[in-house]
Amino acid sequence: MDGLLALYIFVLAxxxxxxxxxxxxxxxxxxxxxxxKLVYVNNVLKGKLLESEILVQQAANNTKExxxxxxxxxxxxxxxxMDALTAHSVMSRSASSASRRACCG
Length: 105
Fold this sequence. Notes:
The protein is mainly alpha-helical. It has one domain. The chain is 81% helix and 0% strand. α3 packs across α6 (73-104). The radius of gyration is 16 Å and the shape is elongated.
């Protein structure tokens, strides 16, 4: 991805961040700090959203307002959440197994 386009998407994410965070906050349950939520949104979801060809194309071809109102945004957020869950589950199982091997032989 072109660096300028990545920067543009980052700026759009910041612009629409409040809407995205509000949508994502609805998904959170349990005892999570605001920092937990921000790390998840800024470091996990943002990265996954940058992988979306649909959103990259829309970011390149639309205004900030059009992008923020994209009918695909909610679906791509859900896809990003699911992809992140899958990746984190695999990494957590792997790290847990490695820890058990190191600890217990």
